[in-house]
């Protein structure tokens, strides 16, 4: 066996799984196709991770990474492209962009990606006013008009972040009420951020850069134009579970990986943790699931958890 445990994804779930596996004496490798840190690095301010009243997502994830590096090896910029369970040998083969590894167990912590609106102009103007990340691109729009499309926690977080950066923000939401936490909704009202209710985006307008949105009111059918220099799309996520489902792992809903309470999937030796399994999709729950998945891996590998 090349590696006892492969952890796919260096986000909150993967970092925690690495800490728990390493402390049980397991030789674990964490793979990430990027630099690591995961989705939480997009959070301008995390206020619900116990122990930190307020911390930037980047800062929190850097701390987790530093901690996890004491317990596991990290293969960053190495994408996992295939998983194969070797029935007879009881191993899982992990194929990456660089190599193939024979492993005793795998924890899939691949998270989610952003959903797209699928309207004209979205793809064409991506990077020219269309963005999916306020923390990454917000500073380009200081003092300018921006629209945030969506009404959940992420959208509201993005809108507040852009507002505090000095952008003139409107929220475009397809429903007649937000779906964000009360505390976030209160912030929207306190900061007088306008919400354009019951409205769907039909087109993102502009030639070489975004100039506005064509929106339609779902109740009246009335079409209008909202001038904007930037559009931040925040309408939900798609689970990155294709890798696992191609290996026979069962999913539910839009593709979340189905696990039991110990994070085991239907395929022996393949476990899953974090946002890719659905549920609350928060840092603290991803960490909890990462710890449970590591414990299950320890059991699968025939070791004892040290407590
Ligand atoms: C703007 C924003 C604000 C947020 N604010 C908060 C907050 O305040 N509090 C809170 O608790 N949560 C917040 N969240 C949610 C939080 O970020 C997620 O719940 C958390 O990041 C989930 O961690 P994860 O480890 O499951 O997945 P992720 O963090 O998404 O990590 C998955 C990792 O897997 C890697 N990966 C995927 N596929 C492969 C592959 N095939 N091979 C190798 N690597 C792969 C990715 O590169 C990524 O690094 C916020 C999210 C956003 C977008």
The CATH class of the largest domain is: Alpha Beta
Specify the structural class.
Answer: alpha/beta
Mean pLDDT: 95
> How much is the radius of gyration in Å?
21 Å
Strand count? 19
The hetero molecules present are: flavin-adenine dinucleotide
Strand residue percentage: 25-35%
Give the CATH H-level superfamily of the largest domain: FAD/NAD(P)-binding domain
Helix content: 10-25%
Give the structure's gist in a few sentences.
This protein is of the alpha/beta class and 307 residues long. Helices cover 24% and strands 28% of the residues. The strands form 5 sheets. Strands 1, 2, 3, 4, 5, 6 and 19 form a 7-stranded mixed sheet that branches. Strands 8-15-9-10-11 form a 5-stranded parallel sheet, with helices on one face. It has a 3-stranded antiparallel sheet with strand order 12-13-14, with no helix packed on it.
Keywords:
307 residues, alpha/beta, FAD/NAD(P)-binding domain, 7 helices, elongated
Please give a structural write-up.
This protein is α/β, with parallel strands linked by helices. The chain has 2 domains: 3-113 and 237-300, FAD/NAD(P)-binding domain, CATH 3.50.50; 116-233, FAD/NAD(P)-binding domain (3-Layer(bba) Sandwich). It is 24% helix and 28% strand. It has helices at 12-23, 57-68, 134-137, 153-165, 182-190, 242-246, 283-300, and strands spanning 3-8, 28-32, 73-76, 80-86, 91-96, 100-108, 112-114, 130-131, 145-149, 168-172, 195-196, 199-205, 212-217, 223-227, 230-233, 237-239, 251-252, 256-257, 270-272. The strands form 5 sheets. Strands 1, 2, 3, 4, 5, 6 and 19 form a 7-stranded mixed β-sheet that branches. Strand 2 (28-32), helix 2 and strand 3 (73-76) form a beta-alpha-beta unit. Helix 1 (12-23) packs parallel to helix 2 (57-68) and helix 1 packs parallel to helix 7. The longest helix is centred in the C-terminal third of the chain and has 18 residues, at 283-300. The protein is elongated. The model has no long low-confidence stretch (mean pLDDT 95). It binds flavin-adenine dinucleotide (FAD). Residues 8-14, 31-34, 36, 38-40, 42-43, 46, 48-49, 79-80, 109-112, 154, 157-158, 240, 243, 274-275, 281-284, 286 line the site of flavin-adenine dinucleotide.
């Amino acid at each position: 066996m090349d590696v006892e445990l492969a952890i796919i994804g260096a986000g909150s779930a993967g970092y925690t799984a690495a800490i728990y596996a390493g402390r049980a004496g397991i030789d674990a490798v964490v793979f990430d196709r990027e630099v690591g840190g995961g989705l939480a690095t997009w959070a301008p301010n995390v206020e619900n991770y116990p122990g930190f009243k307020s911390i930037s997502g980047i800062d929190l994830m850097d701390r987790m990474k530093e901690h996890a590096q004491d317990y596991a090896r990290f293969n960053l910029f190495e994408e996992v492209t295939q998983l194969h369970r070797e029935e007879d040998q009881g191993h899982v083969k992990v194929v990456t962009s660089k190599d193939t590894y024979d492993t005793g167990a795998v924890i899939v912590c691949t998270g989610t990606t952003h959903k797209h609106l699928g309207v004209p102009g979205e793809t064409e103007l991506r990077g020219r006013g269309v963005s999916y990340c306020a923390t990454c691109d917000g500073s380009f729009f200081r003092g300018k008009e921006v629209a945030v499309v969506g009404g959940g926690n992420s959208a509201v977080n993005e809108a507040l972040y852009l507002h505090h950066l000095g952008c003139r923000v409107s929220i475009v939401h397809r429903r007649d009420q937000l779906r964000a936490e009360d505390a976030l909704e209160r912030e929207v009202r306190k900061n007088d951020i306008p919400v354009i209710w019951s409205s769907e985006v039909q087109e993102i307008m502009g030639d070489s850069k975004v100039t506005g949105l064509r929106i339609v009111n779902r109740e009246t059918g009335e079409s209008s134009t909202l001038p904007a220099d930037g559009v931040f799309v925040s309408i939900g996520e798609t689970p990155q579970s294709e890798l696992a489902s191609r290996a026979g792992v069962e999913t539910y809903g839009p593709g979340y990986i189905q696990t039991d309470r110990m994070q085991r999937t239907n395929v022996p030796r393949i476990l899953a943790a974090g946002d890719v399994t659905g549920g609350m999709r928060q840092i603290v729950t991803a960490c909890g699931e990462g710890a449970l998945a590591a414990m299950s891996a320890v059991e699968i590998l025939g070791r004892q958890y040290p407590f």
